[in-house]
Amino acid sequence: MTLAPHSRPLTLDDAAHLLRRTAFGATDAQIRALVGSEARTVARDLLNFDGATAPGNPFDPMQAATPGAGLQLIRAGWLFELMYGPHPLRERLTLLWSNHFVIGTDKVRNMPSITEYLALLRRHAATPSFAAFALDVARTPAMLRYLDNDQNRNGKPNENFSRELLELFTTGIGHYTEEDVKEGARALSGWTFTGGRGNQKYLEVPKFVFNPKQHDTGRKTYLGKTGNLTGEDVIALAAGHPATALFVARKLHRAFVSDVPSDAAVKGSAETFARTGGNIRAVLEELLSSEAFYASRAAVIRGPVEFIAAAVRSFGSPRMEPKQLLNLAQTAGKMGQILLQPDTVKGWDGGREWINDTTLLQRMQLAAALSLGGNAPKLEKPPTPLALLGTERAATVTALRGLSAKQQTYLMLISPEFQLA
Amino acid sequence: MPLHRRDFLKYSALAVAATSGMPGFLARAATQATGQKTLVVIQLTGGNDGLNTLIPYSNGAYYAARPTIAIPKKDVLTLGSDLGMHPSLKPLMGLWDAGQLAWMENIGYPNPNRSHFASMAIWHTADPTQAQAEGWIGRIAEKIGDPFCASNIGSSTPLALRAAEFSLPSIEAVDNFQVKLPAGLEGAFGAMLDAQRGGEADYLVRATRQMLSNTQKVQANVGKYRAGATYPEGKFAAQLKDAARLIASGTGQRILYVSLGGFDTHAGQRGEQDDLLAQLASGLAAFQTDLERQGVAERVVVMGFSEFGRRVAENDSAGTDHGQGSVMFALGKGVKGGIHGDSPDLEDLSLGDIKYKQDFRGVYAGALTNWLGLNAREILGGDFKGPQWLA
C-alpha cells in the first residue's frame, strides 16, 4: 500500500465529495445513500463499470449530412452520455484520457474514426495495462491522422507522433533526447491507415494497416535500448519508462485530487503504477479510497463540461430536448472546452486556466438558462445545497435566504463552491 | 429568458471592492496612471514557417531544400535584392512602402526547444531556462500595479498574461463583455461574494470581483466607437476590430494580445499557410486603416511572433517539421520600417535548422523601453540588446 487509506466510514460531506469527483456530482438522495459506507468498497464499486450506455441517445453521427454536422452530433452524443449515462466515472475517465491522448476535430473529421477512438477510451478507461492502452490508441486512424504518423515513411520520417508520444503521452519532457524522437519515428514508420480520407469520405470506415515497404527495419537506439526496434517496441519502452509512472499519476491526481497535487501523493500513486505494471484500475482504486483524496476538498476547478454535467446530474438528470443538448455542447465551447478539440495537442491545462472574465460571464449566463430561463429543465424537487455546494455548511448558504427556489438554484450555480469539486 | 440588462452602476459597490478585496499589488492598482501608448502583440500559434514568410528568393539553397513548397521567385513580393514577402502578405505592401513595416530576421533564443508548449512557454515567460512561472506581460501588471493594463482578446488567457495571483482579462468579444444579473439578485449576489472563504473558493471570489470591475471599465466607453475600416470575415479580424475599439474608446490597456492559430504545417503547408498569412495581412491592414481613421495610429504599434520557425528542408508530406529560429514583424507609425538583422545562412545549419542571431528578448526590450517607457531589465531579468525597430 503506497497511499494511506481513508479508514473512517463516509460522512455526508465525504459522500458528496466522492460523487463530485467521480460522478460529476449527484442528487441529495444519491449522496445520502453512501453515508456510512466503507471507502474502499465504494471505490471498487464505482470502478466496476461495464460498457453499458444511456438508453435513447438521439444523436447518430452516421446520419450527418456534412462532417461539421457529424462533429456536432458526436459532441452532443457524448454530452448525453456524460449527463445521463449509467457510469459517470467511466465518462469522467474518458474525458481525462481524451485530454491525455489528444486528437483534435479541427483535423480529424472522419466520423467512424472518432467514434472508434471514443469507444477505445471508454474500453480502456480503467485499463489494467497503460502500455496496451497506449498501443491501441497509437493505431487508431484518428491518432495516425491527427499526429501525421500516417505520413511517416522509411527514409522520409514524420516526427510528429513520435515526439508527442514521449512529451505528452508517456515520459513527459526532460526524459528523452531529440535523437530518441528521430529514432522513434523510424521505428513507427509504415503505420498508416486506408480508407476514410478526404472531406467526401467522412462516413467511410478507415482501417489501420502496417505497410512493411514503408517501415525502416534498420537498427535504432531508443531510450537507451538498441535493436531492430518496431513501433510496438518503442511504445512499450516509452510506456514502461519510469518517468511515465509519475507523469500519468500526476494526470490522475490533477483530475481527482487537486489542481495543485502534492508531490508525495503523486509519488505514492506512481509507485503503485510501477508495481502493478501500469494498472490504472489498481492505481485509481487505491487513490479514490485514500486519505489524500478525502482530505483534499474543493480543490479542483470544474471545467466547462464538468460544470454542465454537474448541474444536470445534481438536478437528478432531467430530460432535455436534443436541440438543447446540441446548444449545451456549443456552450461548453464558449466556456473554453469544445469536446474533442482542445487548442493544442497538449490538451487543456485546466485549473485556474478555466477561469477568466469571459468564461466567468459565460458560466453566469448558462446558470441563468438552467435555472431561471423559460427553457430551464423542469425539476420535481429543487436541488439542495448539499447537492450543489457539496456541504450544508457552505459559505453561500447564508446568501440564499428570502430567494425563490429557482433563484436559489441560480445563485448556487454561480457560487464559488459549485465551480469546485 | 426573463433576463434584464441592468445598469452597471448598480454593481459599482461590488466592483470597487475588487481592489480592496485583492491582496498585495492589487491594492495599489487604482492609482496607476494609464500610459498613452499601446502595444498590440500578435501570436501566430503553431510555429509559423519564417522562411516562407520572409523569403530569401535569391538563395539557391532555399529552393534546393524545398522542391515542393518553396515560393517561386515570380510570386515573391520583392522587398530588396535578397528578400521578399509571401504573396499572401500583399495587403501589407502599402505599409512597407510607407516605412511602417519592420521584419526582424533570424530571431530565437539559446538552446532552442522544438516542443510547441515548451517553446511557447519560453516566449511567454521570456525565460529560456523555463524557470519563470509568470508571463512577461503578467510581470508588467505586477510591476506597475495595474491588473487592467493588458487584455487578451480571445477566450483563454495565454501564459504571457498570467501573474502569480491572477490572470489579466480575456475579452472574447467586447459586446458580450458585460454582466447581466437577473433582477432582484443584486443583494444576494453581493452577500454571496462577501462570505468568508479560503483556498480556491477565495480565488474564484477575487476573480469574480475583478471581472465586475473590468467589464464596467470596458462598457463605460465602447459604445462610442464606429469602425473606420471594413474588416475581412473571420475571428482574427473580429478580434483585431475589438482591439481597435478598445483603443479608440480609451479603455486604458497598454497591451492587447491577439492570436491566430493553425501554423503547425506538417503536411500540405502551401494551402494552409497561404490562407493563414492572408488572414493575418488583410486583418492587420484593416486594423491599421481603422486606427488612422480613429486618429490613434500614432500611439499604437503591433509586434508579431511565433513560438518557432520550421525545418529548412521540407518533409515528405509537402510540409515542414518543427524548427528553431524565425522572423518577427512589427508595424505601425511608430515603427522603423525595413529589415532588421541578417538573414540566416541556409548552408550552415544546426540539426537541419537555422542558427538564430538575435534574441527575442532584445525585441521585447525595445517595446518595453522605447514604446511603453518601462524598465525592461526589471521585467526581463537582464539586459538584452536587440534591433532598433522603433522609430
Describe, in short, the structure shown:
The complex is a heterodimer of chains A (421) and B (391). Chain A has 421 residues and is mainly alpha-helical.
3D architecture notes:
- The complex is a heterodimer of chains A (421) and B (391).
- By secondary structure, chain A is mostly helical.
- Chain A has 2 domains: 201 residues, no CATH class; 154 residues, no CATH class.
- Helices cover 49% and strands 3% of the residues of chain A.
- Chain A contains 20 helices and 4 strands.
- In chain A, α3 runs antiparallel to α14 and α12 packs across α13.
- The relative contact order of chain A is 0.13.
- Chain B is 33% helix and 14% strand.
- Chain B has 11 helices and 12 strands.
- In chain B, the strands form 2 sheets. In chain B, strands 1, 5, 6, 7, 8, 9, 10, 11 and 12 form a 9-stranded mixed beta sheet that branches. A 3-stranded antiparallel beta sheet of chain B has the order 2-4-3, with no helix packed on it.
- The N and C termini of chain B lie far apart (53 Å).
- Classes of the chains: A mainly alpha (421), B alpha/beta (391).
- At the A-B interface, α9, α18 and α20 of A face α4, β7, α6 and α7 of B.
Key attributes of the depicted protein:
heterodimer, A: 421 residues, mainly alpha, two-stranded antiparallel sheet, two-stranded antiparallel ribbon, 4 strands, 49% helix, globular, B: 391 residues, alpha/beta, Alkaline Phosphatase, subunit A, 9-stranded mixed sheet, 3-stranded antiparallel sheet, 11 helices, 12 strands, 33% helix, disordered N terminus
